[in-house]
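Weekly sync, protein design subgroup
Attendees: M.S., D.O., the rotation student, P.L. (late)

Item 1: inverse folding check
M.S. brought a backbone from last month's batch and wanted to see whether the design step gives back something sensible before we order anything. D.O. pointed out we never logged the input encoding, so this time it goes straight into the notes. Structure tokens as presented (449 positions):
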């Protein structure tokens, strides 16, 4: 198990002034800073020391920044690498990000920009990591039980739902989606009185209290849905019942097996880090275990089944992580453009067509993981999910789980709706977005005109 708690930084640049500025800046911030003026010297330092952060220029004498990035990833995969450059191109930026750079910053940059990037990277950095053999999963679950009741996905009558895990043989980690979301564990009062869903899909009385729980096997977009509920119910409404149940909870994540209804990656909600105390990546006969929080760290402290990944494991981890993040489904536009798309299409006849198809069964409201409001029409739902929520929280509240589409008797599918609207309004959308940026750039304002 590797631990990387110290803040050691290497700054690599052939501009002496840049080395001086960054070195003084981060030394004042409490980092232990080393510097190098060329790639070869930097590579030597990287072989000898495990740095927390490497800030490197792209163009360097001896060895360029990209080769140094690769060298760092091979030598110390946990090191955060931030590229800086005065000669950036979209190709070099995308190559650097693909190879594992945390960020790519164009020169000149403000000191705030570089310090906030380093801070963000360190916050997201795992505290502990290692691999565990799948044969040892039951010991891992026993560890989780030290915190509280383990709630995990299990198969019942061919359907997956989250329940108290009494026996490891009940665990079903490889699943596409549950029918119902996790929100009912935190909001029992919102459980609908309906016979449209089998009762055993909902949590039972013994699973609903506020005692400590570990949710094991949660997918990244379902975690994002919980974080959106935190915004709506915790921060905005200060719902005491929700906050009480949400208080003593840890989350252990795993990847999903997406189907044709899932569009979490396309809508930018497939985030494997944020919200999770621990994340497990399947690498064949083992899991790669990434611990993200001090609570997760405490839980796995001295856990003897966790071992250092071998070189072969490292290769498998890289492959699995790349695969998990791959954009499998495009929604047709950038997620940040969704509010504009909805605004542009408010009078489109498609909304009336959808109203005519909709049977008003309300199932989509029951299965949606990221809101507790029941919407009467498809259009109302889209306005809230893609327009208002983006205004209130900076992102759509829809996390692209696909549950509403899977369950809808009228075959209404938000992914198809977004794609259809985008296809029809693409040109207007692009010119609108261009104008927004143009006005921001021209007048230096944060507010869209
Ligand atoms: S599930 Fe489909 S048919 Fe039922 S209310 Fe939602 S959109 Fe309408
Ligand atoms: S609107 Fe549909 S796809 Fe989006 S989060 Fe809700 S259930 Fe999932």
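Designed sequence read out in the meeting:
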């Amino acid at each position: 198990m590797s631990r990387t708690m110290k803040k050691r930084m290497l700054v690599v640049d052939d501009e002496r002034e840049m080395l001086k500025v960054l070195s003084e800046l981060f030394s004042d911030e409490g980092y232990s800073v080393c510097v190098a003026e060329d790639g070869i010297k930097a590579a030597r330092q990287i072989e000898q020391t495990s740095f927390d952060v490497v800030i490197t220029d792209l163009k360097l004498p001896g060895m360029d920044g990209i080769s140094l990035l690769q060298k760092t990833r091979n030598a110390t995969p946990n090191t955060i690498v931030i590229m800086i450059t005065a000669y950036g191109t979209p190709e070099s930026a995308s190559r650097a990000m693909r190879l594992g750079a945390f960020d790519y910053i164009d020169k000149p940059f403000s000191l705030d920009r570089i310090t906030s990037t380093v801070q963000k990277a360190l916050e997201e950095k795992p505290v502990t990591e290692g691999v565990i053999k799948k044969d040892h999963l039951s010991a891992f679950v026993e560890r989780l039980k030290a915190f509280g009741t383990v709630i995990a996905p299990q198969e019942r009558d061919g359907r997956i739902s989250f329940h108290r895990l009494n026996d490891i043989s009940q665990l079903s980690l490889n699943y596409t989606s549950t029918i119902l979301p996790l929100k009912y564990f935190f909001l029992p009062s919102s459980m609908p009185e309906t016979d449209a869903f089998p009762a055993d899909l909902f949590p039972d009385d013994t699973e609903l209290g506020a005692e400590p729980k570990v949710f094991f096997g949660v997918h990244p977009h379902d975690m994002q849905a919980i974080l959106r509920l935190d915004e709506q119910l915790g921060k905005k409404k200060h719902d005491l019942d929700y906050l009480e149940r949400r208080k003593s909870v840890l989350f252990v994540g795993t990847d999903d097996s997406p189907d044709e209804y899932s569009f979490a990656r396309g809508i930018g909600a497939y985030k494997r880090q944020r919200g999770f105390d621990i994340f497990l990546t399947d690498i064949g006969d083992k899991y790669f275990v990434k611990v993200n929080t001090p609570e997760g760290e405490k839980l796995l402290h001295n856990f003897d089944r966790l071992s250092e990944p071998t070189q072969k494991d490292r290769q498998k981890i890289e492959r699995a992580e790349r695969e998990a993040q791959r954009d499998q489904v495009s929604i047709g536009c950038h997620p940040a453009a969704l509010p504009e798309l909805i605004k542009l299409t408010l009078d489109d006849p498609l909304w009336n067509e959808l109203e005519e198809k909709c049977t008003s069964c309300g199932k989509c409201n029951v299965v949606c993981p990221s809101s507790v409001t029941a919407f009467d029409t498809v259009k109302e739902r889209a306005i809230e999910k893609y327009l208002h929520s983006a205004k209130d929280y900076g992102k759509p509240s829809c996390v692209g789980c696909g549950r509403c589409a899977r369950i809808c008797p009228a075959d209404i599918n938000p992914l198809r709706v977004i794609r259809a609207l985008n296809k029809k309004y693409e040109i207007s959308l692009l010119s609108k977005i261009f104008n927004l940026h143009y006005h921001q750039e021209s007048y230096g304002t944060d507010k869209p005109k």
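Discussion: The two ends are 52 Å apart (CA to CA). The longest strand covers residues 149-156.
Action: P.L. to compare against the previous round before Friday.
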